[in-house]
Amino acid sequence: MQQVDVITLGAGGGAYPAAFRLARAGRQVLMVDPKGVMSGNCLAEGCVPSKAVREYAELSRQASRFGLGRSTEIDLAHIMTHKDRVQRTRYTQHAAELEKLSAKLSLIQGRARFQDANTVVVENDSGTKSYRAEHIIIATGADIFVPPIPGAEHCMTSRDLFALNPTMQSLPRRLIIIGGGYIGLETASILHALGSEVTLLEQQQQLLPGIDPDFVAGLTPLLDPTIRMITGAEVASIEPTTAAVLKVSFRTTEGDEVLAADAVLMAAGRHPVIPEGLEALGVQVERGRIMVDSTLRTSVPHIYACGDVNGRVPLFHAAVGQSLTAARNILGGDRAPMDYFDFNSVPTTIFTLPAAAYVGRTRAALQAMGREAIEAAYVFAEDSRAQIYDEPDGELRLFFEPGSLRLMGGWVLGIDAGQLIGQIGLAVSKGLTARDLAAFCDQHPMASEGISKAARRLF
After folding, report:
1. One domain, residues 133 and 276
2. Is 302 in the active site?
3. Distance of alpha carbon 386 from its chain centroid, rounded?
């Protein structure tokens, strides 16, 4: 059995920031990951490769909007080559970063299971080996959820689109997407912009279930109306035909319907990956998620759980912040916590075309808490950058606490949403007020000046 100071189960955003911080502080750290490389699912099949493909779709959409058309037909294989190149570049970058700390930090490929509260057993092609540590960080992430629908095995998943050397190398003429969460909606928007005829089926009555309904209602009309989106659709089966076509049967309140497509994408969500042997240790797991407090500790104090595996904010950048919080608390020993993670100020962007983003507490959350808000909005129809890019639809909206005028949350629907939400999120995290935002002279002509303009409307 090998003894180290800290073991991380996983090497993605919930693991490696802590591992690097702890190694620099002199701790001996071991990362164990089934892929054997750093950055987890974000780089393997998620945020980075999907955005590499999205940028092509966005350029195509912009060219069409400006009347430039397409000089050539979309070559998906060419786009995938670019996506693969980005992924390989980042893997090489991460390997170089890891090498600089090799005296204190190592990464091995394998699957880990708990033997006891301080010991994990790692299995790989070389055999089985046990490792013991004073502290353990669980950052095993999440995996694709495939519901038990007859014929689901005939569907693609996001892995077929965004993993290295993806299965999908040409655009399907007709595509059905099952699931209207952020993965399904983003992929529908991207592939439709590249040229596929897309139908999206969502079981719930609202797209993006669980997200502020007013936010969703503001985003929906901004999306291409030729994407067919059906809510309240319960898929009954997926069946192949003899003509290399898939038949999807589903029902709504209006009755049964059957659609044909050249490909079907299953985008029904993701589920946390819980390590084997964990619950026997007394670590609390509810609804398939490891329960943590704001220090990222589990119910077993020396075991931490960061990122998607705790289900709190399943985003890569949130995992990074949680990982660093866990590292600071480990460095502080097992006495009083040294750091806390603010789950409320993590920005979320839906990378549709156009995108939309939110942070903090918006209208629905505040109403559910029985709290009032003073709202201030800036519509992009009056924004110079939106006019330059011919994207006048959408808005920026801020939610302030009455009296103190402290910013509690905000959303952006439309142009530059993914960029603007970071600035709003920083203001939320630092407790800035409408007066603070109103006093700041942001750049012109940039959509970010809408933040201060919205705040100034309160005075």
Report:
1. yes
2. no
3. 26
